[in-house]
Design goal:
CATH topology: Heat Shock Protein 90
Pfam families: HATPase_c_2
CATH superfamily: Histidine kinase-like ATPase, C-terminal domain
Strand content: 25-35%
Number of domains: 1
InterPro entries: Anti-sigma-factor_SerPK, HATPase_C_sf, HATPase_dom
Number of helices: 4
Structural class: alpha+beta
Protein name: Histidine kinase/HSP90-like ATPase domain-containing protein
Number of strands: 6
Keywords: Kinase, Serine/threonine-protein kinase, Transferase
Length: about 160
């Protein structure tokens, strides 16, 4: 119970620590590179994207994309912090970006996971959910992985 309360408190802190630009429909937030931060990043997407007028299926897809990109940065880099960006372009495009601090492979590459493998499907899921995705060099040796989804606004 104490762990759950501490996680909620930590999540509330991180939720209030980000910045939102309503004119651009953009939110940027930085989280520690820890397993508990994956849930916080998902929660940020789940709370923000509906406020921007996107339907439930878009929220679900964006939440999964953020989760997979964040997890990859966590698992495959030596980052201490991970920067996340959500952006809505003209209410027709949703953009998700995750920037790490480096220390991982130069280019993220989708794997072909076997039936018994417990991991290795993240980028394949991202590819299936988005119109475009890619990566670019970040600052100080880090890497930025991004994904774009074309959507229909529901409200």
């Amino acid at each position: 119970m104490a762990v759950a309360l501490r996680q909620r408190s930590t999540m509330a802190h991180h939720l209030s620590a980000g910045s939102v630009d309503s004119a651009l429909r953009q939110e940027r937030f930085q989280l520690p590179a820890t397993g508990t931060s994956v849930a916080i990043a998902r929660h940020r997407v789940r709370s923000r994207v509906p406020e921007w007028g996107f339907q439930e299926d878009v929220c679900d897809a964006a939440e999964l994309v953020m989760s997979e990109l964040f997890t990859n940065a966590l698992v495959h880099t030596g980052s201490e912090q991970i920067l996340c960006v959500l952006r809505a372009h003209e209410r027709r495009m949703l953009y998700v970006e995750v920037a790490d601090q480096g220390g991982g492979p130069a280019v993220p590459t989708p794997r072909v996971a076997g039936l018994e493998d417990e991991s290795g499907r993240g980028l394949a899921l991202v590819r299936a959910l988005v119109d475009a995705w890619g990566d670019r060099p970040g600052v100080n040796g880090g890497r930025v992985v991004w994904a774009q989804m074309s959507v229909v606004v529901g409200r």
